[in-house]
Write a structure and sequence with these properties.
The structure holds two protein chains of two kinds. Chain A is an alpha+beta fold. Chain A has three helices and 18 strands. Chain A has two domains: 79 residues, no CATH class; 167 residues, Cupredoxins -  blue copper proteins (Immunoglobulin-like, Sandwich), CATH 2.60.40.420. In chain A, the strands form five sheets. Chain A has a five-stranded mixed beta sheet, with no helix packed on it. Chain A has a four-stranded antiparallel beta sheet with strand order 14-2-16-17, with no helix packed on it. In chain A, α1 runs antiparallel to α3. Chain A is flat. The termini of chain A are far apart. By secondary structure, chain B is mainly beta. Chain B folds into two domains: 83 residues, no CATH class; 393 residues, Beta Barrel (Porin), CATH 2.40.160. Chain B is globular and about 105 Å long. The chains are: A alpha+beta, B mainly beta.
Chain lengths: 310, 484
Amino acid sequence: MPSKIWVVSAIAALPLVGPVNPLVAAPRAAAAAEAPAANQSAEIARLEAELKQQRDILLQSMQVEQQHYDLLLKLIQNVSQGGLGKGTGTPGDTGALLIPPMAGATTPSPPEPPARKVPEKTATLSGKVQAPAHDEVYVYVQNVHGASVHGKTIEIAQKDKQFVPSVAVVQRGTKVTFPNFDAVYHNVFSPGPPHAFDLGSYRAGEAPRAVEMTSPGVVELYCNMHSKMHASVLVVPNSLWTRVGPDGSFHIDNVPVGNRKIVAWSPKTKSAEQTVEVTPSGATVNFSLGAEAERPHNNKYGAPYGSYKD
Amino acid sequence: MRHPSRSWWRGVAGAALAWSLVPSALTRAETPAPVQPEFGDGQDQDTVGADASDDDQPAPTVQDLSERIADLERRLNDTELAAARRRPTVTVSGYVDLGFFAAQGDGSGVIQDVGPAQSRYFPQYADKFAWVFLGDLLSPAVNSRGEPADLGNLPGVNRADSIRSGGAPSFIVNEVNLTMQGALGESALATASVNYLPRSGADFSLGDTFDVDIAQVEWMPTASRRWSIFVGKMESVVGIEYRDRKARDRFGITPSLIARYTTGNPLGVKVRGKLGTNDWFIVALALTNGSSTTETFHFYDEIDSNAGKTASGRLALRAPSGLIEVGASGMYGPQDHAQDSRDAMWFVGADLQLHHRGFDLKGQWLYGRAPGEQLGQTYSEDHRPYGLRLHVGAYLEANWMVRPFLGFLARADVRDAIVWLGNPDAPGGGDRIYVTKSWRATGGVRVVPNEHAAVKVEYLHNGEYGGVPSIRNDVFVTSLVLSY
């Protein structure tokens, strides 16, 4: 089995490494340099297509491998549950393999279930946040990995030369679309990190452009044409986050026990983080956030906007 | 062109990922224990995510791995983009303004008031000035620069008539603009704007000229960048029309009848600050060589001809929403062209702006005086100050984008003024006087097919009142502005 995995991985890795192999890249680069610009573009497109194809091959290989392990796992489970002809598969479990027991074989004792990601013990985290303004303060648990969400989309509109809403919290994997409802052009960009992007210029009536927020962190959004347009998107790594109430209190349920890094964030204050021990009986953490002066930002070229770019 | 290091990094990332998959796969092959993707500092990592179906999987799925690949690629792109943006840059932009115009009559906005005093429209000036002209020289404007279709064949002057159409319909390249802007560190910005003006030549010489309208450094000394200090040739601070004086920025085509007083680019220093929550208070003060009139008009000194400087300023209040802004502005300084600083030219004005969605309403009122030549003073031929009584100059303009690509403009203008050269009380009287009692109604359409192009059409109906006879000088004008 290991040898098979090595082969699959090596085959999959070769195409990725190939384009950067100097022996391969140098002649290509030299040829591209001599070729007209159109040829270079075609060469780049071809290379990109090749890279994509090779990525697909890699993914397909991994998929095959994954299916293989899934089948083995189900086989083991079926055997351990004496699953001959008992239809132990769930309605959606059509891929389950049922292997007849060998004659005289004894039914093995049920094995330990595979380790699961979600710890069995969770607790409630609560606390208070002191901040200049409680209306936009959020608290989240940082060091708990949550799967990236799929197919979730939120909208941040550009309306009357403002982002609406100007603050949003999304889980990693969320797609954010930016429709422009103004007659004038806007150009949404973020200097990063965690996400540096430039959506280009478009106006009302044109298809809104979108960004998938794949990396946790605070994404600052600006318009390259209107310096006053600003929004913040907090990309959280999991579903363990909440908005602080008007009285400054908060609580988050289902926090796995253990040492947890808790972060309090607000677009108008400095963020703060604390590591707390979450026990089965819960944990309490309090924050005090200091006001942060609004920092001017540059345009997408890294230059100041100038006084008249309101 | 792809950055050479990009494929290298991508290759390294790919190889690293492939390498990382091998031990993971090996581990999984031996025991189906979960392998957690790294996140954060790795301190006591756990997983959660009842809202995600793949959380039930005991190990990273193909989907997880493909997400990691995508995430790595995205981070690589982000890093490259961030690195590229850190490089010092000079941005070059500009536009080409192509037009077509057709003006009534001979394209001129003035007529001469001649004949015996009793048969003149304004007999009171008959004995005071050698030449009396009625109307407005700049009313038949054909482009955003405010150039008239024709200055007319007026006696007693030899002027640079830049368009000189004689009333003939004509295509024209109004302006080719090149604007360069570079950041001088984190708090300063240098800007230069040059306009190239292709015009008719004469006597085997090219008529093309160029005009440096902006050459400035803007320094923002405070951390908030709400205060700016400008040095160089810069925008005026009087009124609001200077903000969209350029063809690329102007909703319509032509400037108002009072743009000549407020949209010039004086040379000097300027301070502009924004105060209060959401910048509700705006202050701008400037000290310049001359006034903020346009360079080709009667009043302008780029290089000063006297020791005194012109002070100008504007105070404005803006509603937090940006819906409304009202301002008051003024200008005071020695007369342009005069070689002494004894006599002052001054203007006061008020302005208003309303903005709601695609609708803008802009209005401005202006009042001003310049005494001109004084008795007992001597003036060299090249430094004779014009006199001015601007009784009222005002406009109200509505811009409405009914669709993102389609907008309409309506503007009403009025200008009541006299401008003269020479002293009417001197023996022999003054040289000439222009008597203006003009109103103008402008209608226009703006079509914006994309962010790089705007097609504009305007019709200007110029009218006269207060004893000035009607002058046929309506103008139909179009403009295609291609920005880059």
